[in-house]
Amino acid sequence: MMKQFLSIVLFITSLAMYAQQTAQKKHDESQAKKPNILFIAVDDLRPELKCYGASQIKSPNLDKLAADGLVFNRAYCNIPVCGASRASLLSGTRPTRYRFIDAYTEKDKDNPDAMSLPLLLKNNGYTTISNGKIYHHQKDDNKAWDSRWFPKGNIRNYQLAENIEKNAQANLSEAGGVAFENANVSDTAYFDGKIAQKGMADLRKLKGQNKPFFLALGFMKPHLPFNAPKKYWDLYERNTIQLPENYVQPETTPKEAFHNYGELRQYDGIPKKGDLQDEMAKELIHGYYACVSYVDAQIGLVLDELKRLDLEEDTIVILWGDHGWNLGEHKLWCKHSTFERALKTPLIIKVPGKTKGTVSNDIVEYIDVYPSLVELAGLKNPTTVEGKSFVPIINGKKSDKNWAVSKFKDAVTLIKDDLFYTEWTDDQGKAYARMLFDHKTDPLELDNLAEKPVYQNIVKELAAELRAKWGKDFLKKN
Asked: Sulfatase N-terminal domain location, by residue (predicted)?
């Protein structure tokens, strides 16, 4: 009798173990079927690349990614400042008058109830890794990551002794240091070279695990200061660099549209007010170009490693810049405005088996990234997500969304078809200044139509639509 009992116990135990192993196997297979995601953020990268049309910038690796991916020709950030833009994108929620304001925004403080994209993926079996600058604050949304890493050293990352001494221990918000550096050093001397190497090492480790990964790489350049190894400066001839066509501030444009580009003014050699000398302006443009080519090379190393490890066919690659950047357009530098140059962003996605080097002219905004990646991963969005998936565009369909909304401080912009309409509003949402550009006839944004009598009906319609689309909580205080 005892033998029979023990046999039954052993049989039941074996069944239970078999069931457990089968369930684990099914779980592992399910996880393995989910696509990996290589999430590449590039600080201050504007869509001035060959894959976006004619450009002096040499970016062969980004152009190669575009040739295998889908290029969004009309992607717009929801707020043109790094910390706020990243928190908005990663939470899938819009900026409001009181939420996601500036570079120092923290997702945990501004929108703690929103489940971030990396946390959702982590909760659904993904290994999540943050390398470099993903959020502005390294401890923001900390629960979302299995590991985080940032290169050690002063954030300005100078390599030449005289620049290190001049900079001392200054941070980006403090005066001191030069605006660019041309140093004869290796690629790994600067942060982005180290970030690329760390990303490649992580790919090698992730290769062997039986679960999907979300590997986020946040590259620092072309953020100021424009520091890049000499060989990337040498790719360009200074005498071929021109100032932008719209190097002017028209009188019809509201004064509120312009700023003193304080971010650049913090650096030695930059006048504290007034226009830059033409030669200085061209040297800055040269430095920006060099930095883009430098970061392009680092991203190329990571993409080559992804292919070498046979992970390419299982991995979605998405590359984005956190906002646009002015290189003298409207005599502005940096971001912090609602002209198109500050709002329009590079956005390229490569989905194995689906993308093949096409360009979309449909309007997308950065809060659309979250729901798109979630759909591609076969998951469900949290109720807090406000964006709209652009997977139908990836599948070759035309989007039925022809608008986006962006803001910076009091300025709120509705982008609709070819029209760019901006209002500066007070706490009650009442406009005190406005501008309207029609990009079909005025792509350089030199002729403000908002105050012209013939456009008043259009302005009235756009003003109503702006308020309908800027988000239900736009005027709500936190």
From this structure: 35-378
